[in-house]
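Sequence, please.
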Protein backbone atom coordinates (compact mmCIF):
# COMPACT_ATOMS: atom_id res chain seq x y z
CA UNK A 1 0.00 0.00 0.00
CA UNK A 2 3.03 2.27 -0.21
CA UNK A 3 3.31 4.99 -2.83
CA UNK A 4 5.47 2.74 -4.96
CA UNK A 5 2.76 0.05 -5.11
CA UNK A 6 -0.30 2.25 -5.55
CA UNK A 7 0.30 3.75 -8.96
CA UNK A 8 1.55 7.21 -8.02
CA UNK A 9 -0.23 9.80 -10.17
CA UNK A 10 1.37 12.99 -8.90
CA UNK A 11 1.99 15.73 -11.46
CA UNK A 12 5.20 14.96 -13.42
CA UNK A 13 8.31 15.85 -11.47
CA UNK A 14 9.59 18.30 -14.09
CA UNK A 15 6.21 20.00 -14.54
CA UNK A 16 6.79 23.74 -14.87
CA UNK A 17 10.58 23.53 -14.60
CA UNK A 18 13.15 24.83 -17.07
CA UNK A 19 13.98 22.41 -19.87
CA UNK A 20 17.42 20.79 -19.81
CA UNK A 21 19.72 19.73 -22.62
CA UNK A 22 19.56 16.11 -21.44
CA UNK A 23 15.77 16.13 -21.82
CA UNK A 24 15.97 17.49 -25.36
CA UNK A 25 18.49 14.80 -26.32
CA UNK A 26 16.22 12.07 -24.96
CA UNK A 27 13.36 13.57 -26.96
CA UNK A 28 15.45 13.67 -30.14
CA UNK A 29 16.59 10.06 -29.70
CA UNK A 30 13.00 8.90 -29.15
CA UNK A 31 11.74 10.83 -32.17
CA UNK A 32 14.46 9.30 -34.33
CA UNK A 33 13.66 5.81 -33.02
CA UNK A 34 9.93 6.23 -33.62
CA UNK A 35 8.99 6.02 -29.94
CA UNK A 36 5.60 7.28 -28.82
CA UNK A 37 5.64 10.74 -27.23
CA UNK A 38 3.67 9.44 -24.25
CA UNK A 39 6.62 7.16 -23.48
CA UNK A 40 9.04 10.07 -23.83
CA UNK A 41 6.93 12.20 -21.51
CA UNK A 42 7.09 9.47 -18.88
CA UNK A 43 10.86 9.17 -19.30
CA UNK A 44 11.61 12.88 -18.88
CA UNK A 45 8.95 13.42 -16.23
CA UNK A 46 6.72 15.86 -18.11
CA UNK A 47 3.22 15.87 -19.51
CA UNK A 48 2.70 14.73 -23.08
CA UNK A 49 1.36 18.17 -24.00
CA UNK A 50 4.57 19.78 -22.70
CA UNK A 51 6.64 17.42 -24.85
CA UNK A 52 4.55 18.20 -27.93
CA UNK A 53 4.93 21.92 -27.26
CA UNK A 54 8.70 21.49 -27.07
CA UNK A 55 8.68 20.15 -30.64
CA UNK A 56 8.27 23.70 -31.95
CA UNK A 57 11.83 24.39 -30.79
CA UNK A 58 13.09 21.82 -33.32
CA UNK A 59 11.62 23.74 -36.26
CA UNK A 60 13.88 26.50 -37.69
CA UNK A 61 12.26 29.94 -37.55
CA UNK A 62 12.33 30.24 -41.35
CA UNK A 63 10.23 27.08 -41.74
CA UNK A 64 6.42 27.19 -41.67
CA UNK A 65 5.24 23.88 -40.27
CA UNK A 66 1.62 23.55 -39.03
CA UNK A 67 1.25 22.36 -35.45
CA UNK A 68 -0.55 19.20 -36.59
CA UNK A 69 2.37 18.29 -38.88
CA UNK A 70 5.16 19.24 -36.49
CA UNK A 71 5.83 15.79 -35.00
CA UNK A 72 5.93 14.07 -38.40
CA UNK A 73 8.16 16.82 -39.84
CA UNK A 74 10.71 16.59 -37.00
CA UNK A 75 10.79 12.77 -37.05
CA UNK A 76 11.28 12.71 -40.82
CA UNK A 77 14.13 15.20 -40.78
CA UNK A 78 15.95 13.55 -37.89
CA UNK A 79 15.97 10.25 -39.78
CA UNK A 80 16.66 11.68 -43.25
CA UNK A 81 19.45 14.03 -42.12
CA UNK A 82 21.55 12.36 -39.40
CA UNK A 83 24.00 15.30 -39.44
CA UNK A 84 21.28 17.93 -38.94
CA UNK A 85 22.27 20.25 -36.05
CA UNK A 86 18.87 20.33 -34.38
CA UNK A 87 20.45 21.37 -31.07
CA UNK A 88 21.55 24.70 -32.59
CA UNK A 89 17.94 25.25 -33.65
CA UNK A 90 16.71 24.58 -30.10
CA UNK A 91 19.24 27.01 -28.64
CA UNK A 92 18.23 29.67 -31.15
CA UNK A 93 14.57 29.32 -30.20
CA UNK A 94 15.33 29.73 -26.51
CA UNK A 95 17.58 32.71 -27.22
CA UNK A 96 14.88 34.44 -29.26
CA UNK A 97 12.16 33.79 -26.68
CA UNK A 98 14.52 34.56 -23.78
CA UNK A 99 13.33 31.42 -22.03
CA UNK A 100 15.52 29.41 -19.69
CA UNK A 101 17.58 26.45 -20.84
CA UNK A 102 19.97 24.34 -18.77
CA UNK A 103 22.99 22.94 -20.61
CA UNK A 104 24.73 19.71 -19.67
CA UNK A 105 27.58 21.70 -18.14
CA UNK A 106 25.07 23.36 -15.81
CA UNK A 107 23.79 19.98 -14.68
CA UNK A 108 27.34 18.75 -13.98
CA UNK A 109 28.12 21.94 -12.06
CA UNK A 110 24.98 21.60 -9.94
CA UNK A 111 25.70 17.95 -9.12
CA UNK A 112 29.30 18.71 -8.15
CA UNK A 113 28.21 21.69 -6.07
CA UNK A 114 25.64 19.59 -4.25
CA UNK A 115 28.14 16.82 -3.56
CA UNK A 116 30.77 19.29 -2.29
CA UNK A 117 28.21 21.33 -0.32
CA UNK A 118 29.12 24.50 -2.18
CA UNK A 119 27.34 27.44 -0.47
CA UNK A 120 24.23 28.47 -2.36
CA UNK A 121 25.43 32.04 -3.11
CA UNK A 122 28.65 30.70 -4.64
CA UNK A 123 26.83 28.02 -6.65
CA UNK A 124 24.34 30.58 -7.96
CA UNK A 125 27.21 32.83 -9.05
CA UNK A 126 28.93 29.90 -10.77
CA UNK A 127 25.75 29.09 -12.68
CA UNK A 128 25.06 32.77 -13.37
CA UNK A 129 21.51 32.56 -12.06
CA UNK A 130 19.45 33.12 -8.92
CA UNK A 131 19.57 31.00 -5.78
CA UNK A 132 15.91 30.05 -6.32
CA UNK A 133 16.71 28.80 -9.84
CA UNK A 134 19.58 26.73 -8.47
CA UNK A 135 17.28 25.15 -5.87
CA UNK A 136 14.73 24.36 -8.59
CA UNK A 137 17.47 22.79 -10.75
CA UNK A 138 18.61 20.60 -7.85
CA UNK A 139 15.01 19.47 -7.39
CA UNK A 140 14.60 18.78 -11.12
CA UNK A 141 17.77 16.66 -11.07
CA UNK A 142 16.31 14.56 -8.27
CA UNK A 143 18.97 15.60 -5.76
CA UNK A 144 16.37 17.07 -3.37
CA UNK A 145 12.66 16.64 -2.84
CA UNK A 146 12.01 20.34 -2.26
CA UNK A 147 13.69 23.73 -2.39
CA UNK A 148 13.58 23.74 1.42
CA UNK A 149 15.92 20.74 1.46
CA UNK A 150 18.29 22.54 -0.91
CA UNK A 151 18.31 25.62 1.33
CA UNK A 152 18.89 23.52 4.46
CA UNK A 153 22.01 21.94 2.95
CA UNK A 154 23.53 24.83 0.99
CA UNK A 155 22.03 27.85 2.74
CA UNK A 156 20.11 30.83 1.37
CA UNK A 157 20.91 34.53 1.44
CA UNK A 158 18.45 36.37 3.73
CA UNK A 159 16.17 38.73 1.84
CA UNK A 160 16.54 37.00 -1.52
CA UNK A 161 13.80 35.03 -3.28
CA UNK A 162 14.88 31.56 -2.12
CA UNK A 163 15.01 32.52 1.56
CA UNK A 164 11.65 34.29 1.31
CA UNK A 165 10.03 31.33 -0.45
CA UNK A 166 11.34 28.83 2.10
CA UNK A 167 10.17 31.00 5.03
CA UNK A 168 6.73 31.41 3.49
CA UNK A 169 6.33 27.66 2.91
CA UNK A 170 7.35 26.84 6.46
CA UNK A 171 4.94 29.41 7.85
CA UNK A 172 2.14 27.85 5.81
CA UNK A 173 3.07 24.38 7.05
CA UNK A 174 2.71 25.37 10.73
CA UNK A 175 -1.08 25.49 10.59
CA UNK A 176 -1.52 23.08 7.70
CA UNK A 177 -3.52 19.87 7.87
CA UNK A 178 -3.45 16.79 5.66
CA UNK A 179 -6.67 15.77 3.92
CA UNK A 180 -7.17 12.17 2.80
CA UNK A 181 -9.73 11.26 0.14
CA UNK A 182 -10.23 7.63 -0.96
CA UNK A 183 -12.77 6.94 -3.70
CA UNK A 184 -14.19 3.53 -4.58
CA UNK A 185 -12.80 1.49 -1.70
CA UNK A 186 -14.89 -1.35 -0.31
CA UNK A 187 -15.95 -0.84 3.29
CA UNK A 188 -16.43 2.91 2.91
CA UNK A 189 -19.76 4.71 2.59
CA UNK A 190 -21.42 6.19 -0.46
CA UNK A 191 -22.58 9.81 0.06
CA UNK A 192 -26.07 10.62 -1.20
CA UNK A 193 -26.16 11.02 -5.00
CA UNK A 194 -22.41 10.33 -5.23
CA UNK A 195 -21.21 8.09 -8.09
CA UNK A 196 -18.76 6.10 -5.92
CA UNK A 197 -18.00 5.31 -2.29
CA UNK A 198 -15.85 7.94 -0.58
CA UNK A 199 -13.77 8.19 2.58
CA UNK A 200 -12.79 11.72 3.68
CA UNK A 201 -10.67 12.43 6.76
CA UNK A 202 -8.48 15.18 8.25
CA UNK A 203 -5.07 14.47 9.82
CA UNK A 204 -2.41 16.36 11.76
CA UNK A 205 0.51 14.92 9.78
CA UNK A 206 1.18 13.34 6.42
CA UNK A 207 2.27 10.12 8.17
CA UNK A 208 -1.14 9.88 9.85
CA UNK A 209 -2.90 10.36 6.50
CA UNK A 210 -0.75 7.69 4.84
CA UNK A 211 -1.38 5.26 7.69
CA UNK A 212 -5.14 5.74 7.33
CA UNK A 213 -4.88 5.29 3.56
CA UNK A 214 -2.95 2.04 4.06
CA UNK A 215 -5.59 0.81 6.52
CA UNK A 216 -8.45 1.53 4.11
CA UNK A 217 -6.73 -0.10 1.13
CA UNK A 218 -5.70 -3.08 3.24
CA UNK A 219 -9.32 -3.62 4.27
CA UNK A 220 -10.42 -3.18 0.65
CA UNK A 221 -8.06 -6.03 -0.32
CA UNK A 222 -9.59 -8.34 2.26
CA UNK A 223 -13.28 -7.91 1.62
CA UNK A 224 -12.99 -7.37 -2.12
CA UNK A 225 -14.37 -4.53 -4.25
CA UNK A 226 -18.09 -3.79 -3.94
CA UNK A 227 -18.17 -2.73 -7.60
CA UNK A 228 -15.59 -4.80 -9.58
CA UNK A 229 -15.32 -2.24 -12.39
CA UNK A 230 -14.71 0.72 -10.06
CA UNK A 231 -11.13 1.98 -9.66
CA UNK A 232 -9.90 2.96 -6.21
CA UNK A 233 -8.31 6.41 -6.12
CA UNK A 234 -6.62 8.19 -3.24
CA UNK A 235 -5.46 11.75 -2.70
CA UNK A 236 -3.44 13.19 0.18
CA UNK A 237 -3.34 17.00 0.15
CA UNK A 238 -1.70 19.50 2.48
CA UNK A 239 -3.75 22.65 2.98
CA UNK A 240 -3.18 25.61 5.27
CA UNK A 241 -5.84 27.91 6.66
CA UNK A 242 -7.55 29.61 3.71
CA UNK A 243 -5.21 27.99 1.18
CA UNK A 244 -6.58 26.53 -2.04
CA UNK A 245 -3.30 24.99 -3.22
CA UNK A 246 -0.54 23.00 -1.57
CA UNK A 247 1.46 19.78 -1.72
CA UNK A 248 -0.72 17.04 -3.20
CA UNK A 249 -0.04 13.36 -3.76
CA UNK A 250 -2.49 11.09 -5.52
CA UNK A 251 -2.58 7.62 -6.95
CA UNK A 252 -4.67 4.61 -7.86
CA UNK A 253 -4.78 1.23 -6.15
CA UNK A 254 -4.20 -1.81 -8.35
CA UNK A 255 -6.40 -4.66 -7.04
CA UNK A 256 -4.34 -7.26 -8.90
CA UNK A 257 -1.23 -6.34 -6.92
CA UNK A 258 -1.37 -7.63 -3.39
CA UNK A 259 1.22 -7.67 -0.67
CA UNK A 260 4.05 -5.16 -0.76
CA UNK A 261 5.36 -2.81 1.91
CA UNK A 262 2.83 -1.27 4.28
CA UNK A 263 2.94 0.48 7.64
CA UNK A 264 2.68 -1.71 10.73
CA UNK A 265 -0.53 0.14 11.69
CA UNK A 266 -2.20 -1.35 8.60
CA UNK A 267 -1.36 -4.98 9.45
CA UNK A 268 -4.23 -7.39 10.06
CA UNK A 269 -4.48 -10.82 11.62
CA UNK A 270 -3.99 -13.36 8.85
CA UNK A 271 -1.30 -11.42 7.02
CA UNK A 272 1.87 -13.31 6.21
CA UNK A 273 4.81 -11.02 6.90
CA UNK A 274 8.53 -11.20 6.17
CA UNK A 275 11.00 -9.67 8.65
CA UNK A 276 14.81 -9.88 8.92
CA UNK A 277 16.46 -11.84 11.74
CA UNK A 278 19.89 -11.30 13.38
CA UNK A 279 21.64 -14.06 11.43
CA UNK A 280 21.04 -12.16 8.19
CA UNK A 281 18.11 -14.27 6.99
CA UNK A 282 14.39 -13.65 7.07
CA UNK A 283 11.47 -14.87 9.18
CA UNK A 284 8.21 -15.40 7.32
CA UNK A 285 4.98 -16.39 9.07
CA UNK A 286 1.28 -15.68 9.49
CA UNK A 287 0.05 -13.12 12.04
CA UNK A 288 -2.20 -14.74 14.64
CA UNK A 289 -2.72 -11.73 16.95
CA UNK A 290 -1.96 -8.00 17.09
CA UNK A 291 -1.87 -5.81 20.21
CA UNK A 292 -1.23 -2.08 20.64
CA UNK A 293 -1.55 -0.32 23.99
CA UNK A 294 -2.43 3.09 22.51
CA UNK A 295 -2.47 5.01 19.25
CA UNK A 296 1.10 5.57 18.09
CA UNK A 297 2.47 3.01 20.57
CA UNK A 298 4.57 0.03 19.41
CA UNK A 299 2.64 -2.80 17.79
CA UNK A 300 3.23 -6.34 19.08
CA UNK A 301 2.59 -9.08 16.54
CA UNK A 302 2.16 -12.77 17.43
CA UNK A 303 3.18 -15.20 14.69
CA UNK A 304 2.53 -18.89 14.16
CA UNK A 305 3.92 -21.43 16.67
CA UNK A 306 7.54 -22.53 16.38
CA UNK A 307 7.76 -26.07 14.95
CA UNK A 308 4.22 -27.00 16.05
CA UNK A 309 5.06 -26.25 19.68
CA UNK A 310 3.28 -23.93 22.11
CA UNK A 311 6.03 -21.34 21.76
CA UNK A 312 5.00 -18.44 19.55
CA UNK A 313 7.23 -15.95 17.82
CA UNK A 314 6.59 -12.33 18.83
CA UNK A 315 7.78 -9.31 16.85
CA UNK A 316 7.44 -5.66 17.88
CA UNK A 317 7.15 -2.84 15.33
CA UNK A 318 7.02 0.93 15.64
CA UNK A 319 3.60 2.19 14.57
CA UNK A 320 4.99 3.84 11.42
CA UNK A 321 7.51 1.09 10.61
CA UNK A 322 7.23 -0.40 7.12
CA UNK A 323 6.68 -4.17 6.96
CA UNK A 324 6.90 -6.62 4.04
CA UNK A 325 3.60 -8.45 3.47
CA UNK A 326 3.83 -11.63 1.37
CA UNK A 327 0.88 -12.63 -0.82
CA UNK A 328 0.29 -14.30 -4.17
CA UNK A 329 -0.44 -11.79 -6.92
CA UNK A 330 -4.12 -11.69 -7.83
CA UNK A 331 -5.15 -14.14 -5.04
CA UNK A 332 -6.26 -13.95 -1.47
CA UNK A 333 -4.13 -15.01 1.45
CA UNK A 334 -3.07 -18.67 1.41
Amino acid sequence: MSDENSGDLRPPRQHGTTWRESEYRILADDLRAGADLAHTALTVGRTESAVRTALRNFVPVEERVPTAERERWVRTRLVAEPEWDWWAVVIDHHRRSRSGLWFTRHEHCARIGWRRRTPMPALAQELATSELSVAELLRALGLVESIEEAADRLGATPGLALAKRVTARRDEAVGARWILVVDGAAGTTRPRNAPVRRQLSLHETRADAEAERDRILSWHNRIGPAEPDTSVWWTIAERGLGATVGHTRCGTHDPTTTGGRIRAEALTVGDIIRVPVPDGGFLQDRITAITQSAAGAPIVVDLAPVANSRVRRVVEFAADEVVDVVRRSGEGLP
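The chain has eleven helices and ten strands.
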